[in-house]
Amino acid sequence: MRDFFKIFKSAESKQIRGPAELIDNYDPDLIHKLKADHKELLHVYGQIKNLLDGHGSKSPRERNRKISALIPRLKTIFVDHIMLENGRLYGQIKLAYSQDDDVIESVHAFKSQMSAIQKKVYSLLSSWTFDFITLSPHKFREQFRALGKSLGERINREEASLYPFYEEIPNLHRANALIG
Ligand SMILES: [Fe+2]
């Protein structure tokens, strides 16, 4: 958050001007929706973790069946979320801060890091079938833990350092209108 304000200050001093349509395309609910996706992702992740910890099932077979039934849900939330970020978030931020190299660099770093995570998550979620979970339980647990760690870190970084750029767009616009 501190970095963001530092960058925002430098953005102000450079008098960044975004096109007027920036505000027309601004969705005041976008960050709320994205954060709700994060919450839902973590919720489903937590449901699977509870099952792995031995809660809510009578046998390993039943547990694995319940887990494999939750994987497609995780995949759907993840895919929809990435589409929303790619389609609505990055482009708008890049447009709004087009004259601020620090922000553009930071957004590029977020996006390319996300592309790498995205590929990894897709391939993991596709490989987590009932058979895989049943036949390679240790490998599954290990991969599942690693996924949770990278998703958790990513979510924290997005909410602390990426989403505030978007939330500030109306303020930037107002400040520029006053200056202009
Ligand atoms: Fe996200």
Overall mean pLDDT stands at: 87
Annotation field: number of helices: 8
Proportion of helical residues: over 70%
Give the overall shape. elongated
Element string (H = helix, E = strand)? HHHHHHHH
In angstroms, what separates the terminal alpha carbons?
28 Å
Structural class designation? mainly alpha
Please state roughly what percent of the residues sit in beta strands, choosing from under 5%, 5-15%, 15-25%, 25-35%, 35-45% or over 45%. under 5%
| Integer tally of domains | 1
Low-confidence stretches: 1-17
Rg = 20 Å
The biggest sheet, with number of strands, parallel, antiparallel or mixed sense and barrel status, is: none
Cofactors and ligands: fe (ii) ion
Number of strands: 0
Write the layout of secondary structure elements.
Layout lengths: L1 H12 L7 H4 L5 H23 L7 H37 L4 H27 L2 H6 L1 H31 L1 H11 L1
Question: How would you characterize this protein structure?
Answer:
The chain has about 180 residues and is an all-alpha fold. The chain has one domain (about 30-180). The chain is about 85% helix and about 0% strand. It has eight helices and no strands. The chain has helices at about 1-15, 20-25, 30-50, 60-95, 100-125, 130-135, 135-165, 170-180. Helix 3 (about 30-50) packs antiparallel against helix 7 (about 135-165) and helix 4 packs antiparallel against helix 5. The protein is elongated, with a radius of gyration of 20 Å. Mean pLDDT is about 85; it is low at about 1-15. Fe (ii) ion binds near residues 34, 38, 81, 85 and 158.
